[in-house]
Each structure stands twice: as C-alpha cells, then as structure tokens.
Specification:
single chain; about 375 residues; seven-stranded mixed sheet; 17 strands
Length: about 375
Amino acid sequence: MMKLYDVYPLNPIEIVKGQGSYVWDKNGQSYLDFYGGHAVISIGHTHPHYVKRLKEQLDQIGFYSNSIEIPLQQQVATLLGEVSGLQDYQLFLCNSGAEANENALKIASFHNGRKKIIAFSKAFHGRTSLAVAATDNPKISAPINEINHLVFLPFNDEEALEQAFLAYGNEVAAVIIEGIQGVGGIQVATTSFLQKIRKLTTTYGAIFIADEIQCGYGRTGSFYAVNDAGVEADIYTMAKGMGNGFPLGAIALSPVFIPWHGQLGTTFGGNHLACAAALAVLEIIQQDQLLLQAKEIGNYLLTELSKLNPIQEVRGKGLMIGIDLAPELKELRSDLLFKDHIFTGNANPNVIRLLPALTITKQEADLFLEKFTKRLHQY
C-alpha cells in the first residue's frame, strides 16, 4: 500500500465538519477555529452563499481550459477592483500563493531586465523555486534554490534598506515584503518602512511587490495590509482567504505593466469553480462589511490580550494577531487545543498565531479570551 507523505506532524484529530467559526471531529467534538486553516477560511466554514455558488456552478461546468473565454474571470476582476480599490490594475488568476509570488518576481524581472531581489529576515513567500529563494528559512531551501541574486535585509531597518539601494540600486528588480509577516511571528511592517520602500523603488526603477497572501484580503481591516501606510504597491500577490478553502491565487498588476500574450499562463488557474468561490467570498466581504468587522473585533482582541500577564508582547492588526509567550508557556497552545478545544496557529516555538475567519463574532472572541485567560493563569 502506498503511504502518505507526512507534510506536517499531525495532531490526532480528524476534522469532518465545519460551520461558521466551528469545526467538528469524527467523534462529534466541536472546536472553536481561531486559525482558519492558515488564514484560508475568510468567510467561515460552509457559508450558505459560498456553498450555493459552488453547487450552482458545478451543475453547469466545473472546469474548462483557459484557451477559451471564461467570463467569470472578468467578473472576479471587476468585483475585486471595486472591493479593493485597485480599479486600474490587471488581474492574473493562478492556483496558490507560491505561484503568485513566483509570477510576480518573474514579471518584475521581465519589466526592468534586472536580476537582484531584496527580501527580509524571517520572510516566507512560498515553496516553489523563486519563492523559496526569497524565503528566509534554510529548512526549506535546497541547493538548487540558492540564488546569488537575493539580498536579505533586517525587517523594518530603513538604514539597511537605504544602504542596499546605494550599493545595488540599478540592479534591483524588486523588493518583496509582507505587510505583516505570518510565519515570521506576526511582525508588522512600520508605516515609515513601507513608505521608504515605495520611495526607493520608484527612484531606482525597481518593483514594489506586496505579498498579501496571509495578511491581505481584509484580514487587517483594510483590504491590503500595506495600504495602511498610504502607499500602493506595483504588484499585489494574494491567495489563502481568496477562495475560502478552494485553491486559488492571483496577482494584481499596476498599469505600468503591459504583459505580452503568453507571458503568464496556467492550466487550472481561474477555472469556473475557482471563480465561483472567489465571487462568493468577495460578495460576502462586501455585503456583510467584513473589513469593518475584522477591524473592530481585531482591535477588541488586541486590547484585551494586551492587558494579560505574563505575555511578553501582543502584535498585529485586525484579525492577524501574534501572542508572544515566555518560553515556559510554549505548551499553552496544545492545552488550548486538547483541553479547551480551540484551534490556534504558531510561529516559532513561543508565538501563538490567531487568524480566525473575518466573520468571527464578539461572543466567540469573548469565549476565546475566557479560555485563554484561564489557561494562562494556571501556569
């Protein structure tokens, strides 16, 4: 019998059902989902409108080649432009965040004919070749991924950024940054740092790529995290919450880019079912004012968590929150899961990541705070 390759160490829990902010295991035990499957579940599990959209589309056609026109793709682009505010950008639909970043870096190099990429310490941009090269994690970088055109700089270090452009300015194809680092421990890019990136990339003709795969799509209370700094990137990459669980990624290209036919391509990207999922997500975000809800509930959680001891630091924006614990509290996350039945994520051994659906309610936030506070005080 062929065995399954274990991608991650698996918890002995098999999830078989989900609704809203809850999931259930095969034994009928419910869990409050404050992680959303790596920030993927943006509008809650099995949202009725989402399910209806997908079922209706599947009754018509689930997939056909991008060699023919798929009007649903333009519908996604139109609605995304309305909700995000990027009306004059072009949308390319793909399958994942790694693929989105791969294409973004390639487009940047095509545009200015350069090779050097600036990325940042603790960055995570994906597991394909260029995306891995731009990721600061030796555990996932194979020898073939080692590219000598990568420059890693300290996150939020404006002086180091300026020095890098003084040294390499006319060689830099792109700067790629997460508005809030997810895997890196919920490290928030400062307003002045993002503005400095915008200024230097414009001055030197480099491309500003905003990796919004985890921190975007409304998670921070703004549609894209970097826009809180009052800047616009040249390319936005997105995935995760875009399809609420359906594999889907995209890049949004500013008007400066004029791609030629065949420059980008994909077999499965932007298929009928993927577009149905994307439309459902955007419709719910718009109709239910989920950006506002993410901001309000997120601010509430950040405020309440900041009052608790012994927490070293609480970081984040909206519904992207990192709780930095002292080393002796690193088992708290597993206690939350196995004793309190609450899913959370982690980043590094001591950071608990909260990435719930944008539909999370105050009552559910209060339940998490109650369980977390009680567990914290037991240590």
